[in-house]
Amino acid sequence: MFVLTVTYTAPMDAVEPHVAPHMDWVAEGYERGWFLASGRKNPRTGGVIFAKGTREELEAFVAEDPFVKGGVAGYEITEVLVTKTAPGLEGLIS
Q: Residue 33: which region, alpha, beta or left (left: phi > 0; alpha: psi -120 to 50)?
């Protein structure tokens, strides 16, 4: 599993025009079966996406995020080798 940490690199007024296209990009990640959960950080400095797939697939997809293409956010991609979960989440175990 991967944790994609999004951090805004521009003021919110520069980020806002990219939010709707970013949300379309997020929807595509779910449609492709890569994204498992996602949401905003609080305070609003970016977001987090829990994903599956290969690092290569995710790196290429992240490069297409309108936030990245617009130069208003960057990503950190962290691989997590899940060894234990709460009941019902066993499918996340590596």
A: left
| Both tokens assigned to 13 | 């007024």
Domain ranges, ordered by start, for the chain: 2-92
| Separation of alpha carbons 22 and 83, rounded Å | 31
What the block records as the tokens of 14 is 């520069």
Q: Could you give the 3-state DSSP secondary structure of residue 84? A: coil
User: 59-74: string of b/e by CB count within 10 Å (b at 16+)?
Assistant: eebbeebbbbeeebbe
The domain made up of 2-92 has a fold known as Alpha-Beta Plaits (3.30.70)
Q: What is the pTM of this model?
A: 0.94
Average pLDDT over residues 46-62: 97
**Residue 85: both structure tokens together:** 């979960």
